[in-house]
Amino acid sequence: MMLPKKRCLAPTLIFALVGFEPAFPQFSSYEACVFPEQAEEGWIQIESVHQAERFIENCWLVQTPIIVEQGPPVVGQRDFYRRELADMAGSAVWVLTWRMETDGPLAIGAVAPASVAAGGQSGILYHFTIGEDQLAFQRDPDIPIVVVDYEPSVHVFELRLQNDIDPPTFQFLMDGKIIDSGPALGPYPSKDSSIVFGTRAAIEGNMTRWDYIAMWNPNGQIPAVSEWGVVGMAALLLTTATLAFRRSRKSKPA
To answer: Which pLDDT band holds residue 27 (cuts at 50, 70, 90)?
Structure first.
């Protein structure tokens, strides 16, 4: 897989499109120009006996786990990162978004090759297992898993939570299109919440690339599902523009 070029969009153009001033009281963005634990965004690397190789290429985190024992059981390498979310507890609105690709087949039971999990001790879970051309989204053992098919490529995934209404609601989007939405099981995040992302080798080795993973609690209300359309695309462009703008500022020489 070839790494796509990054493009910096003008944030002011997007702000004009959606018609409001940006207001992100809390914003955390890992932009993959360094390893997560070096990014000063609160990420730690989870130690593993079989740690996968990793490297940074053109501001992409690249992970290459392989199978080390054919078994049974099969033993594969892994590389995962965790961030606590206590600083975002009680958010009226909470947004999580990430951009990545992988070339491994989806293995739901093995949680491979790539995954993003927002959970904690409260019982609220948003779990995504991501393969080359499929994704599995799970919120609870009693709720059917949502499986999404797509073309192998770089994709943008987004979770949007509205916590200040009864009941709270969620929206899960891929490339700006709503995949699943409805009432949430409760507000998220709470003080004991955390998020984990990374990759492992289960069926076979893989190469997984992460462009960014970001989260924030913006002011305002998430549009209703029926209103998403243009507003949703504007929000997606706003996310991309903001991340690109932050990276361009960071990369300028002092």
So the answer is: confident
